Amino acid sequence: MINPIYSPAPGRYESGIRYRRCGRSGVLLPEIALGLWHNFGDVNPLANSLEMAHYAFDHGIVHFDLANNYGRRIAYQ
Protein backbone atom coordinates (compact mmCIF):
# COMPACT_ATOMS: atom_id res chain seq x y z
CA MET A 1 0.00 0.00 0.00
CA ILE A 2 1.30 3.45 -0.88
CA ASN A 3 1.00 5.99 1.91
CA PRO A 4 -0.49 9.38 1.04
CA ILE A 5 1.93 12.29 0.72
CA TYR A 6 2.36 14.09 4.04
CA SER A 7 0.92 17.58 4.26
CA PRO A 8 1.92 19.60 7.34
CA ALA A 9 -0.74 21.17 9.54
CA PRO A 10 -1.48 24.72 8.38
CA GLY A 11 -1.36 26.14 11.93
CA ARG A 12 1.91 24.46 12.92
CA TYR A 13 3.60 27.76 13.80
CA GLU A 14 0.68 28.84 15.98
CA SER A 15 1.04 26.02 18.50
CA GLY A 16 2.38 28.22 21.29
CA ILE A 17 5.99 27.05 21.07
CA ARG A 18 8.41 29.90 21.62
CA TYR A 19 11.23 30.43 19.18
CA ARG A 20 14.57 32.05 19.96
CA ARG A 21 17.16 33.61 17.74
CA CYS A 22 20.21 31.42 17.11
CA GLY A 23 23.23 33.63 17.73
CA ARG A 24 23.36 36.62 15.40
CA SER A 25 22.24 34.63 12.35
CA GLY A 26 18.59 35.59 12.40
CA VAL A 27 17.58 31.91 12.40
CA LEU A 28 14.75 31.19 14.81
CA LEU A 29 14.73 27.80 16.53
CA PRO A 30 12.13 26.39 18.91
CA GLU A 31 13.03 26.13 22.58
CA ILE A 32 12.77 22.36 22.27
CA ALA A 33 14.04 19.93 19.65
CA LEU A 34 13.26 16.33 18.80
CA GLY A 35 16.23 13.98 19.07
CA LEU A 36 16.01 11.12 16.61
CA TRP A 37 19.00 8.97 17.56
CA HIS A 38 16.95 6.18 19.17
CA ASN A 39 13.85 6.67 17.06
CA PHE A 40 14.96 5.64 13.59
CA GLY A 41 16.69 2.61 12.15
CA ASP A 42 16.05 -0.87 13.49
CA VAL A 43 14.76 0.37 16.85
CA ASN A 44 11.20 1.22 15.75
CA PRO A 45 9.14 0.47 12.66
CA LEU A 46 9.49 3.22 10.05
CA ALA A 47 5.75 3.99 10.22
CA ASN A 48 6.04 4.84 13.95
CA SER A 49 9.09 7.02 13.36
CA LEU A 50 7.41 8.95 10.55
CA GLU A 51 4.26 9.42 12.61
CA MET A 52 6.33 10.83 15.48
CA ALA A 53 8.27 13.21 13.22
CA HIS A 54 5.10 14.41 11.48
CA TYR A 55 3.34 14.94 14.82
CA ALA A 56 6.27 17.00 16.11
CA PHE A 57 6.42 19.11 12.94
CA ASP A 58 2.64 19.65 13.00
CA HIS A 59 3.01 21.05 16.52
CA GLY A 60 5.79 23.55 15.79
CA ILE A 61 8.98 21.51 16.17
CA VAL A 62 11.31 22.47 13.33
CA HIS A 63 14.61 21.47 14.96
CA PHE A 64 15.42 17.78 14.58
CA ASP A 65 18.65 16.46 16.08
CA LEU A 66 19.91 13.80 13.69
CA ALA A 67 23.10 12.78 15.53
CA ASN A 68 23.66 9.03 15.28
CA ASN A 69 25.44 9.00 18.65
CA TYR A 70 26.56 11.25 21.43
CA GLY A 71 30.07 11.23 22.89
CA ARG A 72 30.81 10.42 26.48
CA ARG A 73 31.10 13.31 28.82
CA ILE A 74 34.55 13.58 30.24
CA ALA A 75 35.05 15.50 33.45
CA TYR A 76 38.31 17.40 33.51
CA GLN A 77 39.84 18.44 36.80
Report on this model:
With about 80 residues, the protein is an alpha+beta fold. Helix content is about 15%, strand content about 15%. It has one helix spanning about 45-60, and strands spanning about 20, 30, 35, 65. The strands form two sheets. A two-stranded antiparallel sheet has the order 1-2. Strands 3-4 form a two-stranded parallel sheet. The longest helix has 13 residues, at about 45-60. The mean pLDDT is about 80.
Mean pLDDT: 82
Radius of gyration: 16 Å
Number of helices: 1
* Helix-residue proportion: 10-25%
What is the straight-line distance between the termini?
A: 57 Å
Extended strand count: 4
- Given helix and strand content, the structural type is alpha+beta
Q: Order of strands across the biggest sheet?
A: 1-2
Low-pLDDT windows of residues: none
The SSE order reads: EEEHE
Biggest sheet layout: 2 strands, antiparallel
Beta-strand percentage range: 5-15%
**Gross geometry:** flat
Record keyword descriptors for this entry.
77 residues; alpha+beta; 4 strands; 17% helix
Please outline what is shown here.
By secondary structure, the protein is of the alpha+beta class. The chain is built from 1 helix and 4 strands. The longest helix has 13 residues, at 46-58.
